[in-house]
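User: I'm writing a tutorial on reading structure tokens. Could you give me a worked example: one chain, its sequence, then its tokens, then a sentence or two explaining what the tokens reveal?
Assistant: Sure. Here is the example chain.
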Amino acid sequence: MQSILPIVGLAFCAQGAFAQTSIALSLQDAMQRARQYSQQVYTANIAALLAHEDTIQAKAGLLPTAEGVSGFIYTQPNGTPSGIYVPNDGPRVYTELLNLHGDVYNPAKRAEYHRIIAAEAVAQAKRDLAERGLVARTASHLDRRSVRVSITAAGRELIDQGAAEFEAEIAVLVDGLPPAQRSRLSLIASRVVAADARRRGIDIYATTDRV
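And here are its predicted structure tokens:
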């Protein structure tokens, strides 16, 4: 019985400590914490950190490399400065060798470095979007090594809101034009935007992409 009392007392103390550290959360705070610590944000953050580490390694690969070798040769002395064996410079010979190598210009490494920088920027953008709840990451059913990034309902709502605001601003600018000219201007602007997106490799009509 005496051995149980300390355990019971420790349990009561621990319960009191946990009770003192409890906090009250509002619905908005709870939703914010859920969004911050969700699996979507964690996976996006890990991908961004890995991309940043790839950038560091790629930048280090552009730097020169140095290799050093230290050596010591001992020859039994025989009363002469050179010891028993004539080829040595003395009974104790110390050597220090340094090999320095660096590429003056390597196009392949430079191109790879810039590609990795772009990949890091994309990973950081996806992390920011995931933290805001605008995109969702799911494993691809075709290839488990791939991840699908899709626009959520909140992201689609933000896109529609931005499009509506842009259309409102354009409508103010062309308010004084005849209907035929406004329709023609709208068609030309849509084609310009679509052509620019295709040149950048972006499908403005797609809702998902695989990375």
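What the tokens reveal: Residues 207-211 have pLDDT under 50 and may be disordered. The first helix runs from residue 4 to 20.
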